[in-house]
Specification:
About 15% of the residues lie in helices and about 35% in strands. The chain has about 150 residues and is of the alpha+beta class. It has two domains: about 35 residues, no CATH class; about 100 residues, no CATH class. It is globular. It starts with a strand and ends in a 5-residue tail after the last strand.
Amino acid sequence: MRKTLILVLGGLALVNLSSPAFAGIDNCKGDTNKTKTVKKMNKITDFSFAQSGGIMGMDKRYEARLAELESADRQKLEKLIQSSGLLKVKSEQRLTRGAADMFVYQFIAKGDKKEYAATFDDGTLPDSFRPLASYLQGKAVDNRKRN
């Protein structure tokens, strides 16, 4: 159903506007006046990363409360988490059957009363996760050296 709006301007001109938006339909194609929806990132409070396995039995870990990170570090991590696609999965695990000596990567994001977790190995790590893994490998602590 279309609604029509008629305006009288200066008593002389008539403007006839007819639009699906006037009828309360705001997602119609061709409607240039519709309000854009701003996609908001899920509020992540905690994040952890683990890299394990490989020939030498790697055990690297990184854990952070995002609120405690410096602004630039927090923004970089949030951007990498968002672009990885981690927040689109609730829980995912993809490992290569029968593979040996591959690294295993575990990503866990917590917040908004939700947890997002993904585990991959070198053979299944999606391209979208590679920048996040690379960034975190430089920040992770080797737990084998702690003992």
